Structures are given as C-alpha cells and as structure tokens.
Amino acid sequence: MTRKTKNDDFPHKADVVIVGGGINGCALAYQLAKRHVDVVLCEKKYLCYGATGRCGAGIRQQWSTRENTELAIRSVKMFEKLEKELKMDIGLRQGGYLIIIHDKKEMRQAEKNVAMQKSLGLNVSILDVDEIQDIVPILDTKGINAIGASFCPTDGHADPFKTTHAYAYAAAQHGAKLYKFTEILGIKKKNNLIDHVVTTRGNIKTNTVINAAGAWSKKIAEMVGVKLPNMPFRKEILVTERIKPLFKAMVISFKDGIYFSQQDEGQILGGIPIPEEKPGYITTPTFTFLHHMAKTLTHYAPSLRHVKVIRQWTGYYDVTPDARPILGETKGIKGFIQCNGFSGHGFMLSPMVTKILSDYIIDGKTPPILEKLNLSRFDDKKIKREISVVG
Amino acid sequence: MRITRHPILEFDRGRKILFYFNDKKVEGFEGESIASALHASGVRVLSYSLRYHRPRGFFCGIGKCSSCFMTVDGVPNVRTCITPIRENMRVRRQDGGVGELSDKRFAARKKMVVDDEIVVVGGGPAGMMAALAAAKQGASVTLIDENHRVGGQLIKQTHKFFGSLEEKAGKRGIEIAEELMKQINSVPGIHLILSTTVVGCYNNNTEDGGDRYRLVAVRRFMDGDQLLDVFCKRIVFACGAMENMLAFPGNDLPGVYGAGGVQTLMNVYGVRPGDRVLMVGAGNVGLIVSYQLLQAGVEVDRVVEVLPRITGYHVHAAKLRRCGVPIYTSHSIKEAYGSDRVEGAVVVEVDKNYAPVSGTEENVSCDTICLAVGLTPSVRLLEQMGVKTEFIPEAGGYVAVHDQSMQTSLNGVYVAGDASGIEEASTAMIEGQLAGVSAAASLGYDRGANELISRCRNALRIFRSGPFGEIPRRGKEKIAYLFDKMGKKIWGDSEL
C-alpha cells in the first residue's frame, strides 16, 4: 500500500538526498550534516529495516584485498571512538575474529593475507591448534580438521540497531532531516544532472542523490537509467537460547561458509549459506538453512547439541561481481553517488566509507580507494575479487 | 488452594503423584501441569528474570509466554504450564535460565516423517472443527496440538454459550469440548498428534518447486524430544491467540495473571489462583472470569475498565453486580506492589483521554491481579511462511489477510479462529468448519460442500450482525477488502 501524507514540513529542496535508512545512510547523514550540508534521508520502511537490522553484526579487518582491509582498519579506529563522538552506546565489543584454517591451501592464502594485513599495520597472527582452543574452548578442532587459524584481537562486533540509531540521532542533532516510511518513486534528471527526487511525501529539489538502499539499490539506480551489477541474495541467520559465557571471538570458516559468535547476553548467533541459493527478493526462511546450520554448528561445537534454537530470520546481501562495494559518483550522471554493493559487509565498513564519501561530496577529495571501488571498474573485464567472504 | 466445592465442576483428581521442587517433595495429581501442581502447593515464584533477577510466576497458563520456564530433570527452559507432572520428576527454579551444554548425543528417537493431505495446526474450537469438517468430506487430516489433550481454551469455558442451537448454544464450553473430542476420536481420517509444538512452517513451493508445504514440529516424550518433519498439501492454521499484557509498575510480579491463565488454573486443574482478585477489564472475558472466580470461592474486590462503559454482554455484568462486585468504568490499574508476589494494587480514575486523574488513586487489597485486556492473534507461523499479514486493530493486531473461504494469500494455506482475528469460540468453530470444508473441497472432496459453506457463511453473518458483533465485523470487512485489493486469483474458491 502506498499513501501520500500531506506534510507542510516536508522539505522542497536539499543539498543531498540519501536513499536508505540503514547504517550507511544514517552514517552519511551524520557525516554530511556535521559539516553543515543540508541533508534529507528517505527510508521506505523504518531505520534498520533492511540488511542492517538483520545482519550478524560482525566487524572484521582480515580481508584478502588491500582496499577492504584498509577500509576496515580505519573503520575500526572510528568504531572505537564512536560512542564518545555520538554520545551513545553502540554495543562495541572487540573479542577478535578467529578464521579457521583447514588445509595447506588455506594456510598459504592466510599467510599471504596476514602479510598484507600486517603491512597495513594490523595486529593479526596465525595461531596453532592449542591457541585456538584457548580462545574458543568449545571448538572441536579435531572434528573440523583445523590446522590453525588467523586471529585479530581488535576485530569484534557492535550492535547494528544502537549504532544506526546513534548515527541517526546525532545526524538529526546536526540538522539532518530523516523521514521514515517515505519511499522514493523516481529520480528526475535535467541534462545529465540530478534535478529532483519524487517521494511518497512530495518532491525534493536536489543535485545530489546518494544511493544507499542496500538490496534495493539496483531498483533505485534504474530510476536514472543506471544499471548496477548488484544482485540481492537471501541470507539466513539463527539465534539460540542463552548459554553461559563461553567465548568472545567470532568464529568463521571460508571453507564451510559458517560464522558464529556469542552475544553479550549469551545467545549464539550465526549463519551459513545454503547450497544453490538463487538471487531474488525472497524473504521466507528455509528449513534447509536451519538443518544445515544446526548440523555444521554442532560439528564445530558439539556441546551446543542440546541448546535450543529460538529464532531464524532472513536478510539480503547486496552482492557485486567482485564482492566489494560500489562507491562514488556515477560516470555520466553528475550528482548520483553510489554507496552500496557491500556484499554482506556494509555494517563493518560503514564508518570509513561514509567518511570518505562525505569528504568527496564536500571537498571533492578523490582518494585512490574511491577510484578503485567506482562502478566503472566493471567496465574492465578483469576484476579483483574479494575471496574472504562468509555467510 | 485446591477447589473442593464448585457449583458446576466436579474434580476427579485421580492418582497422587510425588515429585521434587528444589529437592523438596511436592504432591500433585496425574494429568496436572507442573505449574499448576506447584501453584496448588503454594509456590508462586517459578523463575528469576535474566537481567534484573526479578521474580516471575505463572502468567498465561497455555504455553505462550516465558514466565513459567523452569529446569526439569536437568533440561532448562521447559514450559512448565503445559508439561504434565511425572513421578519423581525433579523441577528446579531457574535464575536466568541458560541453555544446557552437553556432549551427549540425542536419544535414539529418530525423526518421524508425516505426509498427509491436510494438516491442522491447533486443536482448539477452530482446529477441531476444521479437522472434523475436512475428514467428514473424505480428506485425510493430521491434527497437531502442543497440549497433551485437544480442546484448546474450550476446556476451561464453564459458562453457557449464546447463539443458535445449531451452533451449540445453551451448552457450556467444556461440554462442547467433550463432544468434539469424542468426534475427533471416532471420525475416521483424523490423525491426532498431541504434545507437539509446530516450530517452523516453510513454503516448499519456493524451496524445491514442489506443491507441498513443510512443517517442522517437536514432539515431547517422557525421555526426550522427537523431531517431526511434516509434509502436506493444505494447512489450516488454528493456532489461537496470546493474552495481552498491560504496562504498569509491578506488572511482572507473581500474582499478576492473564485471565485465561486464571481460568486454566481454576477450571481445568481446580486450583484457586489466590484469595482476593482485582480484575482489569470489563469485556466478556473479564466479566465471565470474575463470575467464575466467585464460583471457585475466590473474592473479587472489583472490576476496573478503562473505557467509560462495560464492553461485555450486560447479562454477564448483571450477574456480577447481583453478587455485589462493583464495576468501575473509566478506571484502570496504576501499579501493583509487593516484594516477591502481589500484596496489593493502586487503581486510578482516568479522564476521557485515558490519562490518570491525580488524587483519585485508591488502594486495593488483593493477592491476585487478573488482566483481561484483550488478545493478540498468533500469526508468527503464518508470517514465517510468507503469508500476507496486515495490522487490523479491530481484529486484535496483525492478522493473515484471508478470503471468504478462510484461505490466505498463499494457495492452500487457511486460517481460522482467533488466529484470523479475535472473536468468540462460536465463530471460531464456524470458521474452522469453513476452512476445513474449503481445504477438502480444493482437493476434490465434495460431500455437499457448497451447501455447508453457504450455511457457515450465513451463520457467521448472523453472529456478527448484532451490536456486540460490530467490532469483529468491521475487522473482517477490512480483511475482505484487503484481500480483494491483493487481486489474487484463488483457485478452488470461484466455483464454491
């Protein structure tokens, strides 16, 4: 159902219109408003409705590509100061990420990754099996054939709801206007310049639109005739009842695709991809996932066998062909800025990504990272794929 | 706390059973739930909350809330209100209630696969009628309920029903339940699976392209649980409703009960909830339960109703007034107090905007507060499947959008009773029949289906035509409007 609400307060113009009220949209609103840009954010549903509110909430700096690693390291530095800056709790906890290494091939890749990550200043190391057991005692390292793991103690997780709302609140304090239940119906151009956006509450005249609509970014881009290579993939997560505190690290395995962690209040939360998942806007959860996840999780941690699952739910990964985000201005359409395609890592990269984009919008700064992650990279045939992906 | 004399009910308590509560011997009766037996022995605090360690007691009594979670024979977080007692069972109070860590393998009980034409989830009035109606048409039906017996909330309705004779008017709910239970056991084609909770519903159409739905259920046995993997062509969701909570300080104190929970305690198990009750809400449930409390020998201090009028039938209100129970309209509860159980409450008058009028606070001396402030349809399983739901205040909250044959936005998935909008047991039975016949007819079973369907629809129309049927009628009209707006082509319905 779409409705129009008459609202005299609804702005008729703005410097920047942000599409999407997830973590990236809200963080962008904050970064821009802080520097006195007149920002309007439109969210179709409510803040955190999309991937942000459904994600695994992990923050990881161990990547295979330099760009992601760099973005993540700088994001963590910002996460660490965020509570002070936004004056609100974001539920940050740095218990580390433990990436299980199962065989020699994985070991070679891990060594390569760790060397690159270390060169960027990250505190990361490769652990032996005994050291794994110290960090996550419930892991059956024999059963899963672990021969080691890479571990970064400053990785961790934050509360996506608290973080998004902290950004949104701070943005509003700086004068940003955030409209929930406000859908973008169209984006109109004049001579390859953005002219105005059409929303369910009225039109907003603007020259800059940021597409931070997550899985729906593709549809937003189509409104201006831009074809994004992004595909929405349903991803599933489950959470168990609370158990006594056992470990603080997020455990992941690229081989099995599983990730799981223990929340502050004791629940085990994690996900795993289901085989043969096709792209599309499907929101219903599957038994295939529940079965696959329960089986794999209890294989990793057999003592969880009798722990009850409380809930399972779905969300979307907005997946690009190289599993890296699409950032920056769109070639040919001035003022149409992409901030999407995070392929499952939007939350953890958001502080730095939004900082870079706001610096670009305000100062015109184009750091190399922004060029490398521009949509135009898909014009080339050869792309460098991020391979450190789970879930 | 056990009721020995009752004007309507006779409690044949059967065999005594001894079990342990925190290592102390406690006595109960066969067929009784753990929570009820503990209540009868004076145990009010069943657990402590995780974060603030506040005492929690009995609340809903039908397995819908988490107030009664206890550790039973070493297994944490067991819903003691729907778990029957067993000899020498060891029940412990939980503080926080964390899950069990154990390396032991699951018991040898293997997964059971059920494959049937129609599955009915919930064995209350709507579900029983749906199963009966579908089976009488010739379909094969599996009826699943999480309690250890069918009957739903009918088994505690000691009052006589209204309506026409055809709809069992003049009979008490408990008698209707008995009658339907007998039929369920005698009509061929119904497979009854009890003590089994459906925990997941999956739309197999989107999973493997098949035309069947998949449900996952957990069946509780003495020695552990069994997983049920259920496949079917049609589903009828008749999973009822949950009691609403009201926000006031002290609302989590043991002694604050849902009205349905109170009914379960006194009318099913013959246990008095307390000695003196403050009833919140003067709808039919509040009025009827107040009267039933009097019948059970419990004092009712008063009934408070936030609206400026009594919303239940006046015949029920009049009965209460004749017994000397005052009904305060434009009044509500302000707070409940007590250290680890209710020791009293403060009520207050409200103005026309429902804001408390200061200076009108009054202390009520009571040990029990009974909340009869409405119900919320249980639609979570439907939502999990991807059935379209909408918020309809007149229907009690989010409900599945459905058509005249009770079919939802998913082909072959039906809904009936409170789960399709809060109403009465009488209409739930008719809706159940409608859903059951329609589901069977869509599979090609027809033993006078058309005639039955039009009779059901007519009966629903009559039930909802009076002034008291206005709210559910408006709710159902909205649902019908939304269904039409979806513009969905429903097969099986056009020729009916």
> What are the low-pLDDT stretches of chain B, counting only 5+ consecutive residues below 50?
489-496
* CATH homologous group name of one domain in chain A: FAD/NAD(P)-binding domain
Alpha-carbon distance between the termini of chain B? 53 Å
Topology of chain A as a string of helices (H) and strands (E): EHEHEHEHEHEEHEEEEEHEEEEHEEEHH
Beta percentage of chain A is 25-35%
State the CATH superfamily name of the largest domain in chain B.
Answer: FAD/NAD(P)-binding domain
CATH class value of the largest domain in chain B: Alpha Beta
Number of helices of chain B: 11
Multimeric status of the protein: heterodimer
The count of strands of chain B amounts to: 27
The CATH topology of one domain in chain A corresponds to FAD/NAD(P)-binding domain
Q: What is the terminal-to-terminal distance of chain A?
A: 32 Å
CATH architecture of one domain in chain A: 3-Layer(bba) Sandwich
The overall pLDDT average of chain A reads 93
What is the CATH architecture descriptor of the largest domain in chain B? 3-Layer(bba) Sandwich
CATH fold type of the largest domain in chain B = FAD/NAD(P)-binding domain
Nutshell version of this structure?
Chain A is an alpha/beta fold. Chain A has helices at residues 23-34, 51-54, 66-86, 104-119, 129-135, 160-173, 217-222, 287-300, 346-363, 368-372, and strands at residues 16-19, 39-42, 58-59, 97-101, 125-127, 148-152, 156-157, 177-179, 184-190, 193-199, 202-205, 208-211, 231-242, 250-252, 259-262, 267-271, 309-319, 326-330, 333-340.
Features:
heterodimer; A: 391 residues; alpha/beta; FAD/NAD(P)-binding domain; 8-stranded mixed beta sheet; 6-stranded mixed beta sheet; 10 helices; 19 strands; 25% strand; B: 496 residues; Ubiquitin-like (UB roll); 3 domains; 7-stranded mixed beta sheet; 5-stranded mixed beta sheet; 11 helices; globular; disordered C terminus
